[in-house]
Amino acid sequence: xxxxxxxxxxxMSLMFMSVVIAVLAAAGLGFNMLSQHHFKMLDQQALSEKxxxxxxxxxxxxxxxxxxxxxxxxxLLGAHQDLLATILSGxxxxxxxxxxxVKIPDIAKRAEAGMWDWQDGEHTYQGVTAKIQVTGxxxxxxxxxxLDVTSHAHFLDNLQRWFWIGLTxxxxxxxxxxxxxxxxxxxxxxxxxxxxxxxxxRSLQERIPLGPVPQELQQLVLSFNAMLARLEDSFVRLSNxxxxxxxxxxxxxxxxxxxxxxxxxQKRDTEAYEENLYANLEDLKRMSRMxxxxxxxxxADNGLIVPERTDIELADVAVKLADYYRLLAExxxxxxxxxxxxxxxxxxxxLYRAISNLLSNxxxxxxxxxxIALRIHQTADTANLSIENPGGTIAPEHLAKLFDRFYxxxxxxxxxxxxxxxxxxxxxxxxxxxxxGRIWCTSVEGLTGFHIELPRLPxxxxxxxRA
Length: 467
Fold this sequence. Notes:
CATH architecture of the largest domain: 2-Layer Sandwich
CATH superfamily of the largest domain: PAS domain
Structural class: alpha+beta
CATH class of the largest domain: Alpha Beta
Low-confidence stretches: 412-418, 459-467
Strand order of the largest sheet: 11-12-10-9-7-13
Strand content: 15-25%
Distance between the termini: 76 Å
Radius of gyration: 51 Å
Order of helices and strands: HHEEHEEEHHHHEHEEHEEHHEEE
Number of helices: 11
Mean pLDDT: 79
Number of domains: 3
Helix content: 40-55%
């Protein structure tokens, strides 16, 4: 099984066990090396002391008579149970041996001087060979000392064996403890999982409490609660949208059914049928426009609206729309004024539709004898267009919801009208957002304004005034 397929508890347990094994292994290897070095230094110190004592005794020998010094050498070297000692003359004759007839290893004969190691069956020796110049002797003597360190080797072997046994037991215990600690520490995460599993469309209002959650998981819980809030808001909006669609389509469908039933209730002349068909055609056109608008919004929500990127002079679009609505405005004694200029990058037809929706909305709520102002200006990075009209002040709590589908400030007008289904501002926002811009509304002291901000082109155009 790959590591990525293991549970989080198993992963943390394995990591905890690996860390414990690594630390214990490093500590054990370090202790073993220090122990070996310590015993080796003790053995070398013992050999060095014996060698110096031997050198002292031989240096004090009288002439060539070494026999007088043998009792001292035997007392020095023969009393040590684990020490082997041999002294050879220049021609290789054994002058002293303790114990008697000790076997001289080949490595000691080859070594002119220095320390050496020797294995003899189950015994391990550490030795030293040294040349000693004695007065009266034509050639230097050779002193060979070897110390039996078998007990030290057995101790180190036992130490290593118990170390591996202890390391294995520590790995098992650390794995069990790591699993218990990880499972306890991941308790809040399991709580988050349980809440997420229990979520449904009827329980989106539930939130995970932050009190028992540790600090490391608080950001996760905050993000999860924020996601639930967004899901709840989207679900409520979708539910309301579905209800609004049914509500808006009910009126034209009811009109169609009523007109058709009345006409079919008795025989009528051709003009009556034509009049009924024309009335039905108006309702069908309204339904068709509403369906087209909803399809447009559905595409916008899924990122399927990709506007063209062309150079657009916003003042030209505003002037054409002002001319288009001028007759309707003059009938209501309303003036439309366009001021300023600015260039943006976008889809001309889509921006034309967005600004047209805002201008149509302004005409609907502007009192007679007033002026609708279209102001255009640009900054270093954006091109801005504002449509301001006098009228009733919109309460602040409604401003952020004006761009919702089928939303109306006045609940009494929920049925809408043949020319207004409540989707114009929602479509406008989708168009502006598709252009990477933003739109917002302000309403203060009887003056309501819709403001559009679009990314602008790097070229600049001199300001002008158009009316």
